[in-house]
Amino acid sequence: MAIFNKENAKKIKEFLKQMKNKVEIVYFTQEFECNLCQQTHEFLKEFDQLSAKIKLTVLDFEKDAQRAAEMGVEKIPAIVLLDANGQKTGVRFYGLPGGYEINSFLKALVEASGKLTEYEKEIEKAIKAINKDIHIQIMVALTCPHCPAAVSTAHSIALRNPRISADMVDGNVFADLTQKYKVTGVPKIIINEKQELVGNQPVEKFLEEIEKI
Predict the structure, then answer these.
(1) Under 8 Å CB-to-CB from 192, ≥6 apart: which residues?
(2) Would you list the domain boundaries of the chain?
(3) DSSP string of 150-187, one letter each residue
(4) Is a pLDDT exceeding 80 seen at residue 175?
């Protein structure tokens, strides 16, 4: 049974026409002890059919542990986006990017293809000037309408600087992280395990918190 009906599939296909270059979706899964893995795989397989510029690669989290380590993947289901040259973009999704998060997933595919959201020159310069390793996690709920914007901002930052990575993390799937970060409202933004923000924040606020690290 298809996840997307004909109407939704058509809309997604139309949106993906914005993609500039090819994007490889690397999906880490395993057969056992991962309730959401099969559903996420089906979701991605449908995306793979909706654009010639999408390539889906499926890897086993245990058998391909070295590849997972190279891409910074420590939990599953995990989705990593690579650019047309097979290079890491810093964009990751943990959990199935459904519900409202399909919006951040679609935007990430377009941006990773080389069509970035435009920022003011000063912001572009500030992002590219970051010379430390930064890991941004956005704890989300798929029913949260404000979460995708925060995820997309984090991904846009990561796409501009190879030292930055940004993850969407479904708090309902990774309850241990929800507890660890004391998430009472979403989106909750955690940067390098040190700085925290709650709510959809502008790119300037992300940069302010990164500056403090």
Answers:
(1) 133, 134, 135, 213
(2) 6-211
(3) HHHHHHHHHTT-TTEEEEEEETTT-HHHHHHTT-SSSS
(4) yes
